[in-house]
Amino acid sequence: MQIGMIGLGRMGMNMAVRLLRGRQKVVAFNRTPDKIREIATKGAKAAYSLGELVAALSPPRSVWIMLPAGKPTDDMINSLLPLLREGDTIIDGGNSFYKDDIKRAEKLRKTGISYVDAGVSGGIWGLKEGFCLMAGGEKSACKKLEPIFRTLAPKDGYLYCGPAGAGHFVKMVHNGIEYGMMSAYGEGFEILDASPYSKYLNFGEVAHLWNQGSVVRSWLLELAEEAFRKDKRLTQLEAYVEDSGEGRWTVQQAIETAVPAPVITASLFQRFRSRDANAFSDRLLAALRNEFGGHAVRQKNGKGRG
User: Fold this and answer.
1) Smallest Cα–Cα separation from 5: which of 145, 199, 204?
2) Candidates 45, 171, 225, 246; catalytic one
3) Nearest to 120 by CA among 88, 159, 146
4) What is the rounded distance in angstroms from the CA atom of residue 262 to the CA atom of residue 184?
5) Is 114 helix (H, G, I), strand (E, B) or coil?
6) Alpha helices, DSSP H only, in 41-165?
7) How far apart are CA 79 and CA 75, in angstroms?
8) Residue 240: which region, alpha, beta or left (left: phi > 0; alpha: psi -120 to 50)?
9) 178 catalytic, yes or no?
10) Which of 94, 206, 220, 281 would you call most buried, defined as having the most Cβ atoms within 10 angstroms of its Cβ?
11) Active-site position among 52, 99, 106, 178
12) How many other CB atoms are there within 10 angstroms of residue 298's CB atom?
């Protein structure tokens, strides 16, 4: 099957390579030409403009966008619209908000162009292991794309989730769960690190052990093992954690539907907290303890006051 791929970042490039290895035909475009030249050496047809990309695809065309959510994706869709025709399909494989998908699908439906939202998980390991795919949109449009989906995914790694927005909704919740799991692992290893047994433990070995039949085994724990192998106590890293937006959206959805989600919510707030090593709220806590109980506080000059 033939597919146009727009966006050759870490995910987009690996997806294009996996498609080529699966004998699918890829026409590729990227904002910077060096990535286009790179994928062309692997068998893709190079397109140095959107016009070239669309012209190289046989109708009905399928164009997959792998760009940051929000304005970059909206701008790309708007740029493609004059070039595409009724019967063509746009697939958004980025981490878009599902309500944006619903709006886009309705807008494109009026032009006769199908819109498919594809939640993609797999990270930089997807090329080797396959990408877990969660698709939303018209069922007939997703059915036509199954050769692409099944080439990208491992066995049983593709699911049609429902109408517009469903794919990115399932991916959003997936990422919210991921936030909670990562925080639990972080807390557990911090307890080990603070314990009297810390000096006896190799955390990489502990992570490896827990992946051998334990109920907490997971791919994330395999990645933790690899991280500890590179840096036994992660001393080369700063405790600063960004969030992609999907954790926030999951919490917002929980609030909208009155679903208690304390673990995911706390894990999101933990990421916010990681970005401030000298939080105002903690300074106020210290000041209040000093005021009401005379408890000692630490000054910036290193001197204590109690």
Assistant:
1) 145
2) 171
3) 159
4) 13
5) strand
6) 50-56, 71-80, 98-109, 126-129, 139-144, 146-152
7) 6
8) beta
9) yes
10) 94
11) 178
12) 11
- pLDDT tens for the chain, residues 1 to 306: 999 999 999 999 999 999 999 999 999 999 999 999 999 999 999 999 999 999 999 999 999 999 999 999 999 999 999 999 999 999 999 999 999 999 999 999 999 999 999 999 998 899 999 999 999 999 999 999 999 999 999 999 999 999 999 999 999 999 999 999 999 999 999 999 999 999 999 999 999 999 999 999 999 999 999 999 999 999 999 889 999 899 999 999 999 999 999 999 999 999 999 999 888 888 888 888 888 878 787 777 655 555
**Stated pTM of the model:** 0.92
Is 25 known to be catalytic? no
C-alpha closest to that of 188 among 236, 221, 231: 221
Amino acid residing at 213: G
